Amino acid sequence: MPKPVVPEAQRRRRRPTRSGTVLSEELIVETALRMLREHGSTGLTARRLGLALDADPSTLYRYFRGMDDLTLAIGDALIGQALEGWAPTGQWRHDLREVGLRIHAAYVSHPQAAVLTASRVTGRANELAADEAVLDILRGAGFPLRDTVRIYHAFIDQTLAFAALDAASLALPSAALDADEDKWHSTYARLPADRYPRIAEAARLLTARMVTSAYPTALDMLLDSVDRQRPRRAAVSPERF
Amino acid sequence: MPKPVVPEAQRRRRRPTRSGTVLSEELIVETALRMLREHGSTGLTARRLGLALDADPSTLYRYFRGMDDLTLAIGDALIGQALEGWAPTGQWRHDLREVGLRIHAAYVSHPQAAVLTASRVTGRANELAADEAVLDILRGAGFPLRDTVRIYHAFIDQTLAFAALDAASLALPSAALDADEDKWHSTYARLPADRYPRIAEAARLLTARMVTSAYPTALDMLLDSVDRQRPRRAAVSPERF
DNA sequence: CGCATAAGGTCAATGGCGTTGGCATAAGGA
DNA sequence: TCCTTATGCCAACGCCATTGACCTTATGCG
């Protein structure tokens, strides 16, 4: 049986580390986010995190069951950060769009962390709050339960999928050793036009466009589709007459 | 300077390993795919792969520059497998849909491998061929270069993004130790209805739906959008009259 | 106010990992 | 048949996460 982890809410004794810093779940997650940004998505290790916190690596196991548990906490922090200060306006389309863009932006602003967490289900507080919020927007807009769940599924998966993909390509260049960095220039831009005529003719445009995200476009397409399926009031809308 | 890697095409001497098996790039990738399926996405290690091949782990470095290079080769094999036997029909929408579904299906059929590779740019032969094919479909349909590149970007990113996300959730249950497996049942289905009313009312539908992929729907939405932007011939299409 | 308790920090060790440099051997061209 | 060198093997290095035992000190109770 490993050491039990005390939930943050029940911590009483806050014993400072050898060098005087007082640990907390929040401080550890913040430090981990900083390390990920500085050392890349593979640069978060228990040893280094301990070093950065001036604590023994094994101390982390007083706060998290393991590195995976810490990873989930990091992911939940990103979601929390995404919806910090957000409040629904009651206009479902605007609210949904805002939630999607905020979540996507939060992940993309911490790409190295997002790579580790975007496709995980944390089951922690902030994730639950976000899910509840999306479902509430749709239910509040009058969608029946089945449609709500279907739309929620497409919406959240599309958001997380693009967040993960965009984060992955942003995270690679920071780890300068990863050779993927300039593969578009070193490989795609130099292909022989006789064997790859279509790539060759598009190379310049490709290298320019592939660095941007296709998420906003895809999101609006989804919202358009949702709008068309939305339950209307009995009255016919005025524009028709 | 590390040992140089001899390209597969130039290999002359095929010296058998101690136990008699003859190595090749293809055999190594196949074995790696099998190990990934059996041991999960974190179960591919140089030592284990060497064991499975009856070869010393360091031998792998005669074929790949490192585990990362091997990972890219695995990804390229998935793309190759996706388009194996495929040929364009000349109907752009049908062809594009087929390519998307094939790539998605290939990744999802090797989820543990897909997790490692779906968001990587390999720059290898099969990837280049797939990109060339997609660009050719769009150019052949008459799209100008700029539109072609824009559509290609949205199409390929959406395909890979969903492939990565769907693969990730499929890969987790196989590694039975990962606790994410039944988080939907252990957490979401048991939330208190007073704090999470929307999740609670949708729990049953959510657990049923979240195991399926939203990709086909999203793909058709994209194709609809593309269809509306397609350049028409000068003549007005017959249905209008 | 002081003491017992146990929370929480530290230490040392284990077994795994990727990777490398040196070495041995046998394949295949001459 | 011999030489060259491609290719397999070995041993070692410095990482990694994780654990169990130990120590120390903050806290709550009497």
TrEMBL record, chains A, B:
Query: Would the keyword Amino-acid biosynthesis turn up in this protein's UniProt record?
Result: no
Q: Does the keyword Transcription regulation apply?
A: yes
Which part of the chain engages DNA, per the record?
45-64
Gene3D superfamilies hit by this protein: Homeodomain-like, Tetracycline Repressor, domain 2
Q: GO: which molecular function terms?
A: DNA binding
User: Which Pfam family, an example, fits this chain?
Assistant: TetR_C_1
> Which keywords label this protein?
DNA-binding, Transcription, Transcription regulation
Q: Where is this region: Disordered?
A: 1-20
Q: Which residues form the HTH tetR-type domain?
A: 22-82
Q: Which domain of life is it from?
A: Bacteria
- Please give the biological process terms from Gene Ontology that the record holds: negative regulation of DNA-templated transcription
Protein name, please?
TetR family transcriptional regulator
